[in-house]
Amino acid sequence: MTIKTTEGWVPNEVTARIGARVRWEDVVSDIDWDQAIVRLSPPPMPDYVRSSIHGLEGGYSKPGAAATWDPVVKEIFAEYFENETEQRDLLSAQVDSVPSRVLDVACGTGESTLAWRRRFPRAQITSIDVSPYMLAVAERKLAHDRNIDVRCLNAEHLPFADGSFDLVTASLLFHELPEDVSPVILAEMRRVSRPGGEIAVMEPYRVGGKALKPIPFPEPYLKDYLATNWDVAFKAAGFGAVQTLEYGEGWIRIATAF
Ligand SMILES: C[S@@+](CC[C@H](N)C(=O)[O-])C[C@H]1O[C@@H](n2cnc3c(N)ncnc32)[C@H](O)[C@@H]1O
Questions:
Q1: Burial class of 248 by CB neighbour count within 10 A (0 to 12, 13 to 18, 19+)
Q2: Is residue 60's pLDDT more than 90?
């Protein structure tokens, strides 16, 4: 697998608009990244994670992506959907059951986990990500919560027993994966869901071969994502009763594990 770069990418007017609104003073500057690596003991980083996601060379394998993620993504959400918190809460609001054990796959800097915590105050949440840099930022928000376990893991090989979780979720992950990796992670999410458990996924771009708005930053795997039939992919991974909610530019899928 090759590491994709920003070659060929041309910024557009949306890039400039978002860049002008970002509060650059909110960029994280006081984390000891070397210490975070020692503490979090990361697995080998897959090549696609090193691709120039959002135009940052090295992607999530470098501290820069983690340091800038929160202030930049807040403005990307504002550009596409108006309000980040509302959009994140829209996903968790779709789950009617009350899960005791939640797995947040690819939790990044922890904003997706915080949305699940708002929705289910008593749940035991496990939040995993392959990037120790993203997790170092997440830890600051989540470490005080004794019922949140933050772990540096590759979602392609989860070290959890079959059926360990009532709810397995992923936000904004699949549009950043090569097409041969998405089915592997979906299958792992299915394996660790208990039968009858739910999976909740949120993605920012619709399917159909085309994003509706100009993409503000490079998304090296967007073509793979847009070419995927997600209903088929969920069924193939062993999920049934897939409910799809389209909102703004994106979609939410809630499915039950057979
Ligand atoms: C766009 S961020 C989304 C973060 C978070 N879920 C959110 O909603 O803000 C995608 C995250 O997926 C992580 N990721 C990518 N591939 C992964 C893998 N194989 N296993 C675990 N995490 C992965 C990246 O490190 C990154 O933090």
A1: middle
A2: yes
Q: How far apart are CA 249 and CA 206, in angstroms?
A: 6
Mention every residue, 6+ apart, whose C-beta is less than 8 A from residue 231: 242, 244
The preferred substitution site among 60, 92, 203, 205 for testing ligand 1, maximizing ligand atoms within 8 Å of CB, is 60
Residue reference for tokens 């609104």: 21
Q: Characterize the bridge pairing of strands 124-129 and 165-171.
A: unpaired
Q: Dump pLDDT digits (tens) for 95-138.
A: 999 999 999 999 999 999 999 999 999 999 999 999 999 999 99
> What is the tens place of the pLDDT at every residue in 66-104?
999 999 999 998 988 878 999 999 999 999 999 999 999
Determine the 3-state secondary structure of 166 from DSSP.
strand
Residue nearest to atom 12 of ligand 1 (CA): 106
Question: Hey, what CATH topology would domain 10-258 get?
Answer: Rossmann fold (3.40.50)
CA of 88 relative to ligand 1 center, distance in Å: 15
Q: What is the pTM of this model?
A: 0.96
**Does ligand 1 have an atom closer than 6 angstroms to the CB of 173?**
yes
What is the enclosing helix (H) or strand (E) of 87? helix 84-93
| CA 113 vs CA 48, 73, 198: distances in Å | 23, 15, 16
For ligand 1, atom 1, the nearest C-alpha belongs to: 172
